[in-house]
Amino acid sequence: MDARILLAPALVIGLSTANATEYRFVATDTTPETLMCVAAGNNNTGKLRMAMTRQSGSIRYHANSIACNGKSMAQFAHQYGADKTYALLAAHSYDRHKAIESVTIKDLSAANTERSDEIVYVMVSSR
Fold first, then answer.
1. Distance (Å, rounded) from C-alpha 78 to C-alpha 41?
2. Separation of alpha carbons 76 and 98, rounded Å
3. CA atoms within 13 A on the CB side of 2
4. Residue 106 neighbours by CB under 8 Å, 6+ apart
5. What are the residues facing 27 on neighbouring strands?
6. What is the pLDDT of residue 117?
7. What does 25-82 look like in DSSP terms, one character per residue?
8. Which residues lie across from 71 on neighbouring strands?
9. Of 3, 53, 120, 121, which residue is 20 to 30 A from 26 by alpha carbon distance?
10. Could you count the other beta carbons within 10 Å of the beta carbon of residue 68?
11. Concatenated DSSP letters for 69-100?
């Protein structure tokens, strides 16, 4: 009986992560702004903070003035599930540059049984 109780949560966790999409970000140029966008997409807060402090201006300035693939850095990070960098950027962003939060309910029992793990390469530009 105890084994069933322990296995059920592990099965649910395994199902929810089995169909994960992995994003890999490729910089289209070597500008500091593009490198900030790549760090934001990769969920690397340390590299993002370091890149922002190397350039003139504050974190708030960069969070509100740099666009990544046509979106604000916070919206870009949110789009690709980079929750740590989104939290950092959203704290310094104006409301118009934050992502609009929504809730999606997915029925795991109706999920497709085929493995859909895939790697998606995203070309990133700050222009």
1. 8
2. 9
3. 0
4. none
5. 124
6. 77
7. EEESS--HHHHHHHHHHTT-HHHHHHHHHHSSS-HHHHHHH-EETTEEHHHHHHHTT-
8. 68
9. 53
10. 26
11. TTEEHHHHHHHTT-HHHHHHHHHHS-GGGS--
Q: What CA–CA distance (Å, rounded) separates 75 from 89? A: 9
Token look-up 């289209």 returns: 28
Long-range contacts of 91-96 (CB under 8 A, 24+ apart): 92/58, 92/59, 92/60, 92/63, 92/64, 93/60, 93/63, 93/64, 94/64, 96/72
The amino acid sitting at 71 is K
Report how far residue 51's alpha carbon sits from residue 32's, in angstroms, rounded to the nearest whole number. 7
Integer Cα distance of 16 and 28 in angstroms: 32
Which amino acid, 124? V
